[in-house]
Amino acid sequence: MKKKLSRRNLLTKLGLAAAAAAAAPAAKAAKATVQKVLVTADAPKGYDPKDHKWQMVIDANRCIGCGHCAEACKTENHVPEGHYYRTWIERYIVTKPKPGSAETRGEVLVDSPEGGMRGFGPPPVPKEDIQQSFFVPKLCNLCEHSPCAQVCPVGATFDTPDGAVLVDPKYCIGCGFCIQACPYGCRFMSPVTRTAEKCTLCYHRITRGLRPACVEVCPTQSRIFGDLKHPLPDDPLQNFFKNNRVNTLKPHLGTEPRVAYAGIDKEVR
Questions:
Q1: Which of 88, 184, 236, 269 would you call most buried, defined as having the most Cβ atoms within 10 angstroms of its Cβ?
Q2: Do 91 and 65 touch, CB atoms closer than 8 A?
C-alpha cells in the first residue's frame, strides 16, 4: 500500500534526489554496475540470466482466496510485519444493478483484509445482492517498460535480462520515487531497511531451479510460473496462453506487464 509523504519528508527526499542528479556520472556508473554485475547477486555461480526468461501468469478462476501465497511470501522473504506485502489477494464483489436501472451490473467492492493472508470473512453485502465475486492475486507486474526503473535517480531499481525487476538496497537512497511511480501499488518502503521493497519472483529460488514460494504453496495452481526459453513438455505456460483469454492490468499505460491474467475483467485495476 502506498503511503503519502509529508512535506518535510518530500523536501528531504527531493534534496537527496537532487544530490544524486548532481552526481550524475557516479549514478550512471552505479547503474551500469548494478546491471552488469549485481544482477546475479542472489543467484548461484554459473547462472546465466541471458539464458532464461521467467514469467508468472495467474488464473483468477482458480484462486480461492486462501491467502497461503501471501503468508508464504512473508515468511520466505522476511517481509516486515504489519501491512507490508510483496504479494496479496484482493476480493472483488460485483453487486446486482438496482431495479429499473439500465446498467448490467451494480457497484464494485474491493477488499483485502491483511492482504488476504488470513482469508476473507463474510461479504460486506447480502449474498442475494451479489452478481459475481472472485479473487485476484496481486504482485509486481514485471513491466517491460518499468516506470519504477525509469524514475530511480541512482539505478537501484533495474530490469534483469531474465525478466525480473529488482531493487539493490546498497544503492537505494529511500527517496520513494519508485513507489509513487508504480501504477500497480506493488512497492513499499521497508520500515526496517528504509529502502524500497517489492516482489522479486523469489529470485534467490528461481535461479536455483525452484519455484517462487507463492507458486509452491498454491493449492489450486492458480499461479503458474515458468521459463519461456526452456518450455516443459506439455508446458503449463503455453497451455495457459493457448486455452485462456489473457489480460494484463492497466494495458493503456504502455508498461507492458509480464504478469498475465485469466478470469478478470475491467473491474480489476
A1: 88
A2: yes
